[in-house]
Amino acid sequence: MKLYIAPYAPNPRRVMMFLAEKGVSDIEIVTLNLQEGEHRTDAFKKKSPLSQIPTLELDDGRTLTESRAICSYIEALRPEPNLMGRDAFERAFVEMWDRRMELLFSMPLMMWVRHGNPVLAAVERDQNAEVASYNQGQAMRMAKWLDSELATRPWVAGERFTIADITACCGVDFAKMNRWRPGDDLPNLKRWREAFAARAAGKVAA
Q1: Measured between alpha carbons, how far is residue 52 from residues 55, 63, 102, 118, 192 in Å?
Q2: What share of the chain is helix, strand, coil (3-state, %, to 5)?
C-alpha cells in the first residue's frame, strides 16, 4: 500500500499519527508538494478525484481518501491496539468525541490558520480575514470547554487514548503556525498535550 501525504498538512498527519500509534510501518509514504500543485495533476486525480490528501492506495489500485475513512480501514486490518472502541457503545462514544474534535475544535483551528496566516496564501487562495476571526473565536471557546472536560479524565474520550485524541492534537498543533498553544490558562488541555507528546503518535513530526 501507498499513503500520499504532504508535510505539515494536518489531515495526513492525523493518519500518520494513527499509524505510529498502531505500530504500522509497512506502508510506503509518498510525499507531495502542495505549493507546487502536485496534488492537482491529472495523474494524481486518477487516484484522488478531488485532489485530496491523504490518499491511501491499495495494492490492487483501489484508493481511499478522507483521513477518518483511512484510519477505519487500518483499524479493521490491524485491530490492536484498539483506537476506535471495542464494543458497540464504545465505538459510538469514541466516534462522537472524534466528530466533536474534528468539526467543532480542529476544523475551526485549521480554518483560522488557513485564512489568517499569510504563509498559506498559496494554498488557500481566497483568504478571508473575517473567516479567520470567526473561526478563531469558535476554536477558543471550544478550547475552554475541552479544558473543563479534561479536568475529569486523562484523555478526550475517557480513560484511554483513542483516535479522538489524535484528531484534537492535529488541530492544536496546526495552530502553532498562528503562535497558539495551550498555556497555563488551559491547564488541563496543556497537561493532555504534554501526555500526548510522550506517546508514539506524539513523535510524528508536525
Answers
A1: 7, 11, 17, 22, 30
A2: 55, 10, 35
* Lookup: cell for 198: 510522550
For the beta carbon of residue 43, count every other beta carbon within 10 angstroms: 7
For 157-196, the pLDDT digits (tens) are 999 999 999 999 999 999 999 999 999 999 999 999 999 9
Residues 99-119 have pLDDT tens digits of 999 999 999 999 999 999 998
In sign, the C-alpha dihedral spanning 78, 84, 89, 92 is negative
Which CA distances in Å does 28 have to 3, 4, 5, 25, 102?
6, 9, 11, 8, 26
Nearest to 90 by CA among 41, 155, 30: 155
Provide the β-strand partners of residue 55.
Answer: 4, 65
The single residue listed with the C-alpha cell 473561526 is 135
CA distance 159 to 90: 12
Q: DSSP label at 188?
A: H
